């Protein structure tokens, strides 16, 4: 790697691994953050290190928005691991031990006008999370749309705006606690959604 090139780092989570315990166990949080997310960071760095002419000042979102600018041989690695790093860095903030409940203000208005009620929004988001085949993410977009992506793809890779909420439905996000019951994981997850952060992104 050239000198001065920035290495990406695993971000800290601002609550303990055990803080969501009733809904998402310490074992899952620890494994998900310290192993899975760390692996995305390490593999992203490794992929970028393999490039001779990489502009090390680039931010992560700039890199994954412009995958076509990279040599073809690293595009898949940067897509998967850069996406993984981007998505998980947000995912930890989308949860909080003080989470749950409902959004307020303009975001509440948006969801009510688009879905009829908060509960109908939750139902729609949950349905899309359940029908997503294999591994991927479910996103709430700033216009109120709910979309899904496969693997570690993220809406900004496809030229869309950044999502304001996202749910990881990879099995590694729930299997230790919920086995194959993705529906139980999703039902529990609503109890830890950090609506303050979602509202911040919406503004
Ligand atoms: Mn994950």
Overall description:
This protein is mainly alpha-helical. The protein folds into two domains: 26-91, Orthogonal Bundle (Helix Hairpins); 105-202, Iron/manganese superoxide dismutase, C-terminal domain (minor pseudopilin epsh fold, 3-Layer(bab) Sandwich), CATH 3.55.40. Helices cover 48% and strands 7% of the residues. The protein has helices spanning 26-49, 60-65, 72-93, 105-115, 118-131, 175-178, 182-189, 195-202; strands at residues 136-140, 146-150, 165-168. It has a three-stranded antiparallel sheet, sandwiched between helices. α1 (26-49) packs antiparallel against α3 and α4 (105-115) packs across α5. The longest helix has 24 residues, at 26-49. The site of manganese (III) ion has 7 residues, from α1.
Please describe the topology of this protein:
Layout: H1 26-49, H2 60-65, H3 72-93, H4 105-115, H5 118-131, E1 136-140, E2 146-150, E3 165-168, H6 175-178, H7 182-189, H8 195-202
Antiparallel strand pairs: 1-2, 1-3
Bound molecules: manganese (III) ion.
What would you say about this model in short?
The protein has 203 residues and is mainly α.
């Amino acid at each position: 790697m050239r000198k001065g090139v920035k290495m990406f780092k695993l971000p800290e989570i601002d609550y303990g691994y055990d803080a969501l315990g009733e809904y998402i166990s310490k074992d899952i949080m620890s494994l998900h953050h310290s192993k899975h997310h760390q692996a995305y960071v390490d593999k992203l760095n490794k992929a970028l290190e393999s490039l001779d002419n990489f502009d090390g000042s680039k931010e992560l979102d700039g890199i994954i928005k412009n995958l076509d600018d990279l040599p073809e041989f690293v595009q898949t690695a940067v897509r998967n691991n850069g996406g993984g790093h981007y998505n998980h860095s947000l995912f930890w903030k989308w949860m909080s031990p003080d989470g749950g409940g409902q959004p307020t203000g303009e975001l509440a208005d948006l969801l009510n006008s688009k879905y009829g009620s908060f509960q109908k929004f939750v139902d729609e988001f949950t349905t899309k999370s359940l029908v997503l085949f294999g591994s991927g993410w479910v996103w709430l977009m700033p216009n109120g749309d709910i979309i899904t992506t496969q693997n570690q793809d993220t809406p900004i890779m496809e030229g869309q705006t950044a999502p304001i909420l996202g749910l990881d439905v990879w099995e590694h996000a729930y299997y230790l606690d919920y086995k194959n019951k993705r529906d139980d994981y999703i039902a529990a997850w609503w109890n830890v959604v950090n609506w303050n952060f979602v509202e911040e992104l919406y503004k």
